[in-house]
Amino acid sequence: MGDPKKLRRKWKRPRKTFNTARIAADKELKRDHGFRRKKEIWRLDYAFKHLMRRARKILATKDKEAEEILMNKLIKMGLIEKKVHIDEILSMSFEDLCERRLQTILFKKGLATTLKEARQFIAHKKVRVGDKMVNQPNYLVLKDEEDKIKLKEKKVKVVEKPVEEKASEGKNTDTGSEKGAEINEAPATEKPVEESKEAKTEEVKEEPKETETKEDKPDVKEDKPVEEVKDTKPEESVEEKK
Of 35, 208, 210, 227, whose CB neighbour count within 10 A is largest? Predict the structure, then answer.
């Protein structure tokens, strides 16, 4: 495996942190380009100074291969349109590099109304550059990637309806004759229910009357026939005589 490569810092603090001129310049950059913290400015300034060092070295050594590599890189980044002299590269300013930031390009293309909103879109992972998602406002956009910047589309969740609701919707989409039949059948089922309820209430009211008539009637004793009474009396008299 070997030892891992030592990671080096890609930015440096300024030598004089409380320089009034530098602090005023940083405030203007934060206002014009939407920087949030000074660390972002220092990191981008480190990359800009690295390009300037390469240009000065090429100017001193007059190395054609290194000059061509640097020119192709600057054209690819969109800082220059065609190959120019090294002196023109050295005349570039730090603001030219700030214009290639993703946050400023997103604002200039009209995808965000303000620089703050553009930064919010990037931080919330809603910006795509081509097929990749970028969440760094300090990302330097290449010239070929300008037309590939787009916002992430919202995904709409489709909720499937239950089978019963689908069946009811299918019935409603039938012809008008079926709808009329359903409408006519609905009240027909309601009428017998009401009639049955009224009949039950009448029966309940009539039942107490029958019970009252039975209770009010006096008990009638059944009398024996007269012939039987006559027959019994003489027999009793004969026995008594004996």
Answer: 35
- What pTM value is reported for the model? 0.61
Structural domain that includes position 48? 9-97
Render the burial of 109-144: b for 16+ CB within 10 Å, e for the rest: eebbeebeebbebbeeebbebeeeebeebbbbbeee
DSSP state of 111: S
Q: What pLDDT was estimated at residue 170?
A: 61
Q: Which amino acid is at 42?
A: W
Residue 17 resides in a domain: yes
CA dist., res. 208 & res. 233, Å (int): 47
Which secondary-structure segment (H or E) carries 122?
helix 115-123
Low-confidence ranges of the chain (pLDDT < 70): 1-3, 156-242
- Whether residue 136 is contained in a domain is answered as yes
Q: How confident is the model over 97-143, as pLDDT tens digits?
A: 999 999 999 999 999 999 999 999 999 999 999 889 999 999 999 99
Q: Within a domain: residue 230?
A: no
| Residues 89, 18 share a domain | yes
Residues 35 and 69 in one domain: yes
Helix (H, G, I), strand (E, B) or coil at 119: helix
